[in-house]
Design a protein that fits this description.
CATH superfamily of the largest domain: RepB DNA-primase, N-terminal domain
Oligomer: single chain
Number of helices: 5
Length: about 300
């Protein structure tokens, strides 16, 4: 996908900088039409047209729809708009560096294999937070400037957008995950009971019975209580069937919470999780039960509340 527009201040001097007018959005088949798309962006950014030129940071399944839900299931690259920040020198070296102006950069990290778009967006946010960059460009609807075009934002000064490939090879996603700091700790989004969990005064409820209804991937460190990585009960709605990014836990005060990073699960809370999984109890029925003469059975009992 390509996106171009002309700075409105070129024809309306009183308009603030970086307001685009006469925008054009086009879709191209990849990889067949990639050369045509590149030529189109260069033409749009020429001195004759004076248009700022951008490209979509990932692929879409269908043309005409730039919503995150239309994004291809996987990507093979991470991206960062440094904005006024600066990526730490001790961090993983980018595969490509794009100078979007004389003072701003966009960074890209090629990966050794495709990853889910949800994982990539989460990692992009971590990169942007670490660099004190633009976290708003971490998402799936982002467009960034294409190298070889021009930046007319500071007209009459014009910045040429240039790029360079570094000597860094593709990165293992697992290495990036270990090298980039986690986001600052805080109550999981979407959990209505987490913020006040230290003062939770509700009934005592055990977490373990609910874990019987999901696949537990492991125990995670959490200074506020108990936390597990699990396979989301709504995994069938995840793009690409991604199994990562879902946690459930219990605060020291007793409050239970659920959080999933995936877009389809935004807003789902512990109550939603409980309705789907429900508590499970298993009761053994055998000859030890007075008056029972049937076969040995293990009966599962589900509680709606």
């Amino acid at each position: 996908m390509t996106f171009t527009g002309q700075q409105a201040q070129l024809t309306l001097p009183d308009v603030p900088a970086n307001q685009l007018a006469e925008t054009r959005q086009r879709y191209w088949r990849y990889p067949e039409q990639a050369p045509q798309a590149a030529a189109y962006l260069l033409s749009e950014a020429s001195r004759e047209c004076c248009r700022d030129a951008y490209f979509g940071v990932h692929l879409f399944r269908e043309s005409g729809n730039r919503l995150a839900t239309n994004a291809a299931a996987t990507v093979r690259c991470l991206w960062l708009d440094e904005d006024e920040g600066l990526f730490p020198e001790e961090g993983p070296e980018p595969t490509a560096i794009i100078h979007s102006s004389s003072e701003r950069r966009h960074l890209y990290w090629r990966l050794t294999h495709p990853v889910s778009v949800e994982w990539a967006v989460g990692m992009n946010r971590r990169l942007a937070t670490w660099a004190k960059g633009d976290t708003g460009k971490a998402g799936l609807a982002s467009v960034l400037r294409a190298p070889g075009t021009a930046n007319y934002k500071r007209h009459p000064a014009v910045d040429m957008v240039s790029g360079v490939l570094t000597d860094s090879g593709p990165w293992e996603p697992e290495v990036m995950d270990q090298a980039v700091p986690e986001l600052p700790k805080g109550p999981p989004q979407g959990d209505r009971r987490c913020s006040g969990s230290e003062n939770y005064d509700g009934p005592e409820v055990e977490l373990e019975p609910y874990l019987a209804g999901v696949e537990v991937l492991g125990v995670l460190p959490d200074g506020l209580g108990t936390k597990y990585a699990i396979v989301c009960p709504w995994i069938s709605e995840h793009t690409g069937g991604d199994r990562s990014g879902t946690r459930v836990g219990q605060r020291k005060g007793g409050a239970l919470w659920f959080h999933c990073d995936h877009g389809h699960c935004q807003g789902r809370t512990w109550r939603d999780f409980k309705r789907v999984v429900r508590r499970r109890r298993f009761v053994s029925v055998d000859a030890s039960l007075p008056g029972y003469t049937g076969p040995n059975l293990k009966v599962e009992i589900r509680y709606d509340r």
